[in-house]
Amino acid sequence: MRTSKYIFVLALCSLLVVPAKAQIGMHELGDSLTVWTGFSPVWSPAVRIKNLRVNGNNVTVRTNSVLRDVRWTPENVAQLKLKVSQWVLGHEKGKVTIQALNTNIDDLITDCARKSKPSVNQNCDLTDRNIVLYPSHGLYYNRDRGEWIWQRATLWTTVEDLYSQEYVRLIKKMLENAGATIYMPRAGLEQQTLGVSGMPEWTEGARYWVKAQGADSAIWNLYDGDEYKDDMKCRAMWVNALDVPVDLCLAFHTDGQDSGNDSTIIGTLVIYTAKDDEGKTTLRNGKDREHTNRNLADWIQTQIVSDLRTIAPEWTRRQLKEANYCETRVPVVPSLILELLSHKNMADMKYGLDPTFRFTAARAVYKGILRSLNGANATVQPLPVQELGIDPNGVLQWVPTEDALEANATPAYYMVYTQADEGEWDIQQVEKTTQLQVDLKPGVRYNFYVVAGNDGGLSFPSPIISAYRSEREEAPLALIVDGFSDSYGPEWFADSTYAGIMPGSYACENGFSCAYIGEQWDFTRSHEWLNDDNCGWGACYRDHAGQLTIGNTHDWCARHGYALRKMRISYVSCTAGMLENYSSQIPQFQLVDFVCGRQRQPLEEAHYALLTEYLTKGGKLLLSTDHFSTIDAQWAKENLHAAYYAAKATRSGRVSSPRHRLYQLILEPNEEQIFTCTPEGLKTTDTTAIRMATYEDMRCGAAVGYRGQKSKTLVYGFPLEAIQDFEKIYKHSIEWLIYEEKEPSDF
To answer: Counting CB atoms within 10 angstroms of each CB, which of 81, 200, 555, 600 has the fewest?
Structure first.
């Protein structure tokens, strides 16, 4: 017995001894490998050498688990072996084996990294695929406190419990547009009914939704009243109970790491698990759990990092991490946890509160899923059409949106949606052309939008445009120009003591958002997180939680057109990018209504020339924007007879007209309509122009009107759509421009 122990000890010692022939010690080698991985010490431990053996030119290195977290490719495996040979032997001719724990790094190369094609089902889209997708966390009932609480800290105007919903709703739609069937253990945003907490059901954790859907209590009542743990595990239990073949399960999370500054990106982490609760290494379909899950995770992380670096070149790729989490350990189907970014880290959230960033990230997740199932060359659904218009002759035309990242995301056909008055939407498929002749019947208001399609599926819808031909032959003809395509995040600031979101600044959402919960109130860098109710730097209020925030709804032509029809004024419409297509037709319009909304750059270079020519020929222009300060000042002086005067021109939002009509301007996020957080004061530039509206509290101009011998203009320093009674102020504005008998006192 002693002999056996003695032999064992000798053998163990021999594994730890590095022959003198090695050019580097184990600790130094570990440090060199740590630097090579590029992993930040903020979120990854160092590489440590467990075993280093040298036998002539043969080198075997066994490390801790950190090297399992590297995304291995044939190229970087070969490169690292050359490096290790150089470090250990002093030359690059050694035969090197590198193991992360007991796994050769060669065996950690995924199909994604090898660019392998799937062996079966090489479809273009995701028809017949069943995908489980869900956002993280949600409100849960804490029995010790006797109240409903969030599962994560409320920071940077949001909370992970709701912030993750914002991505999932986009990913879900993209996957459905590709033909997939989506299953979710948490309520989606379409569930607007109130739950047991008095909040919408989509704010609650999965435990309550699966219970409400009739799931067995063995799925959601697991921990004898600990509903936090119930919520965590029930998601995976619910997946296993589904009676459909599930292709994959993706849990969408954000992380709580903090870089300690406002410039270092934490970035994207993916997590998978190699063994289940019983130590089994196979999934229900018989495939190897680690290989399948790691491959799925790699496809998605690789796509995300690649796409996000087109927006944020410094975006960090974190670990491709094998770890023991119930959301990836319990499911018997391919599963991963995606930690897209750190919701605690200011540098991440400067991007994360931007709707364009979120759309890009969501599309990357969709593409990663598509390619994990159908291969690297799978056809990607098109981007939405952004530019379209209809002219007085009923010619509807549009321009496809080029995808600079995906060569095959080109539209092959289009679905044109038409609505007559308030009726149902009619759908017509159009191929090999980007225009359609429409019969505009007198007295009928029409709305249109276009969806692009190809073998990969359908795009999101285009903006809505509109047209109406009055039954009155003498009716004026207007052109509505939708110049509001923008969406963006809030403004940020930083100094050595304070940093965060500029007070009073809010994102301009794309459509709407469920993520915003309240303004940031703690700006002090040195304030540390103590608990989720005392979050420190970045902490925000929660008064808006559970409410949607309305942003750019892309239906401005239809809204303005609805009001014009009430006035029996004929109109057609287009997006701003199509305005040049109507240059020859512009003189025939008695009015151009240029909708700028919250667009950061209201007028492009081409617009100045077109509008100048139109006004020179006697045109009438209505323009409203909260970024008037970005319009060329000389052009504005010569053509609008107005100039920028002041920023943040009102706090009350009360706007009065010369006739002392009062209008309420909406200045904060709400569920009813778009708002503005940057109303600007305007002034006249000569005696021929007049102030047409005043901000009551600041007593500065809110609108400037001009009636010349030929042209007439009316410009606002805020979006008309942000007025509580939009139709009222819009009606008075149109009448003043079109009808000569209307005086400022009538306004």
So the answer is: 600
Please report where in the chains the tokens 């102030």 appear, as a residue.
Answer: 691
How far is residue 666 CA from its own chain's centroid?
24
Contact 668, 702 (CB under 8 A): no
Cα separation values, 406 from 158, 249, 377, 387, Å? 32, 25, 10, 20
Tens of pLDDT, residue by residue over 364-411, are 999 999 999 999 999 999 999 999 999 999 999 999 999 999 999 999
Q: Which residues contact 50 (CB under 8 A, 6 or more apart)?
A: 62, 63, 64, 101
d(CA 705, CA 549): 32
CA–CA separation, 113 and 225 (whole Å): 44
pLDDT-derived band at 12, boundaries 50, 70, 90: very low
Output the pLDDT for position 116: 65
Residue indicated by tokens 């630097």: 35
Question: What 3-state DSSP class applies to 86?
Answer: helix
pLDDT at 741: 65
**Helix crossing, 355-374 with 160-177: angle to 10°?**
50
SS3 236: helix
pLDDT tens track for 132-186: 999 999 999 999 999 999 999 999 999 999 999 999 999 999 999 999 999 999 9
Beta strands in 443-485, from DSSP E residues, in sequence order: 445-454, 457-458, 465-468, 477-482
- CA–CA gap between residue 111 and residue 118 (Å, rounded): 8
10 Å CB burial of residue 64 (0-12, 13-18, 19+) is: middle
Q: Are strands 248-255 and 335-342 parallel, antiparallel or unpaired?
A: parallel
Phi, psi angles (nearest 5°) of residue 208: -80, -30
Instruction: Output the CA–CA distances (angstroms, integers) from residue 592 to 138, 445, 570, 735, in the order listed.
Output: 47, 18, 12, 13
Q: CA quadruple 244, 246, 252, 256: dihedral positive or negative?
A: positive
Residues whose CB is less than 8 angstroms from the CB of residue 406 and which lie 6 or more positions away in sequence, other chains included: 367, 380
Report whether 251 contacts 265 (CB < 8 A): no
Contact 491, 505 (CB under 8 A): yes
The answer to whether 628 touches 636, Cβ cutoff 8 Å, is: yes
**pLDDT the model gives residue 17:** 45
499: its two tokens: 């940093």
- 3-state class of 563 per DSSP? helix
Residues 6+ apart with CB under 8 A from 101: 50, 62, 63, 64, 65, 68
Tokens standing for 462? Answer: 């285009």
Q: Find out whether 513 and 670 touch, Cβ atoms under 8 Å.
A: no
Q: How far is CA 673 from CA 108, 293, 442, 550, 556, in A?
A: 51, 43, 30, 6, 12
Residue among 359, 360, 356 at smallest CA distance from 306:
360
> Which of the 8 DSSP states describes residue 730?
H
The amino acid sitting at 305 is V
Q: What sign for the dihedral angle of Cα 663, 682, 691, 734?
A: negative
Q: Read off the tokens for 413.
A: 């056909």
Cα(1)–Cα(688) distance, integer angstroms: 109
DSSP string, 285-337: TS-BHHHHHHHHHHHHHHHHHHHHTTT-TT--EEEEEE---HHHHS-SS-EEE
Instruction: With H, G, I as helix, E, B as strand and everything else as coil, classify residue 341.
Output: strand
pLDDT band at 193 (very low <50, low <70, confident <90, very high): confident
> For residue 616, what is the enclosing H or E element?
helix 605-616
pLDDT at 265 (0 to 100): 96
* DSSP letters spanning 636-679: IIIII-EEEEESS--SS-EEE-TT--EEEBP-S--SSS---S--
Average pLDDT, the chain: 94
The 8-class DSSP code of residue 502 comes to: P
Read off the DSSP letter of residue 746: G
